[in-house]
Design goal:
The chain is mainly β. Helix content is 7%, strand content 46%. It has one domain.
Length: 244
């Protein structure tokens, strides 16, 4: 199976799966279709550790020094660039020592955001997301911190950024900060072949991410593709152009 940025096949696949599950639940007289079991969010609670900074999940590895650069052009012709850097830094969040990952976003060459994401790996290999600090920029100056959150503050709890074993049809909360950050993700396909400027990758995993706080649903979510041993290779319109 090959992932294609120009194809709607994967979105149709999600729509069909969602409808089948709903129909099965509504009519006990018809053959039922078992809904895939989604990852258990309690996996990322501090009481279910110990957690590790050695993040080795095949679809979301975070070795110190890893650098990913993705680039692309959106529907309005804006050139988007995303730089992901795994720092040799840690941050204690909700009592858990997490790895700090810096993500810089540019539009037409201008810096628009720097986020410091906090991750740790659970005993079963799930990569847990403990929050992010965010600086929003306009013409080189910080103008806001939209979307910043930390697990353990208020009603915030850790989310799942990558399941230990992604299974098609499952859904999970990436962010669990009510009213601030509530991004969700669904696994659409695993075992995908994807070609991007940085190369061709086999056995990739295809996801759809969406933000309910912006009125999005799974059917208008953004494409995310993760390659084994590399991590993110497609981020909506941006695709991987270099890695080290």
């Amino acid at each position: 199976m090959e992932y294609n940025l120009c194809s709607s096949f994967f979105r149709r696949d999600v729509a069909v799966l969602a409808c089948m599950v709903v129909l099965a639940a509504c009519d006990d007289d018809e053959p039922t279709i078992e809904e895939p079991v989604s990852p258990d969010p309690s996996t990322c609670l501090p009481t279910n550790g110990p957690f590790t900074l050695a993040i080795t999940n095949t679809y979301f590895p975070l070795p110190v020094g890893r650098n990913l650069v993705l680039s692309g052009e959106d529907a309005e012709g804006v050139v988007v660039r995303v730089e992901v850097n795994v720092l040799d830094q840690t941050e204690v969040v909700f009592g858990v020592t997490t790895r700090v990952v810096e993500v810089k976003e540019f539009e037409d060459g201008e810096l628009v955001e720097i986020a410091r994401d906090f991750y740790a790996q659970a005993p079963d290999g799930t990569v847990c997301y403990f929050g992010e600090d965010v600086d929003e920029y306009d013409r080189g100056k910080v103008v806001g911190h939209g979307g910043a959150w930390r697990a353990g503050e208020g009603g915030n709890v850790p989310g799942i950024i990558m399941p230990s074993q992604p299974r098609p049809g499952t859904q999970f909360a990436q962010e669990s900060a009510p009213g601030i950050a509530e991004d969700r993700s669904a696994v659409v396909a695993v075992g995908v072949r994807v070609s991007v400027p940085a190369g061709t990758f086999e056995n990739a995993a295809f996801f759809l991410d969406w933000n309910p706080l912006e009125g999005q649903t799974i059917l208008d979510g953004e494409d995310k593709v993760y390659a084994p041993g590399i991590g993110l290779v497609v981020d909506d319109v941006a695709t991987l152009v270099s890695t080290k």
